Amino acid sequence: MMQELMRMVERTDEEPRDRQIRRLGARQLRARQREERRAEQAIMEIAWSRLC
After folding, report:
1. Which of 42, 46, 22 is nearest to 34 (CA)?
2. Which of 1, 2, 16, 42 sits 20 to 30 Å CA-CA off 24?
3. Is 1 in a helix, a strand, or coil?
4. Per its UniProt entry, which superkingdom is the organism in (predicted)?
5. First CA to last CA across the chain, in angstroms?
6. pLDDT tens digits along 10-43
7. Distance between CA atoms of 8 and 46, rounded to whole angstroms?
8. CA distance 20 to 14
9. Rounded to whole angstroms, how far apart are CA atoms 8 and 16?
10. What is the pLDDT of residue 41?
């Protein structure tokens, strides 16, 4: 009985960590996407300035 309780406590401790890891992963993904968009915009600005 005590072992079962300990396992349940361990599981509930792990869940928030999993959420934090996913949240960090999502933040990093959004940051990477923002960087890519900025780089694409910079490239387009250079291309347009060379055309004009």
Report:
1. 42
2. 42
3. coil
4. Bacteria
5. 77
6. 766 666 677 777 888 888 999 999 999 999 999 9
7. 58
8. 10
9. 14
10. 92
What tokens does 38 get? Answer: 């900025």
How does DSSP classify residue 52? -
Output phi, psi for 19, to 5 deg: -65, -40
Amino acid at 52: C
d(CA 51, CA 47): 6
Distances (CA, A) of 37 to 8, 17, 21, 23, 30: 44, 30, 24, 21, 10
* Structure token pair of residue 41: 């915009």
23: tokens are: 């949240």
| pLDDT of 6 over the 80 cut | no
27 is written with which tokens? 């933040």
The Cα 9–Cα 26 span in angstroms is 27
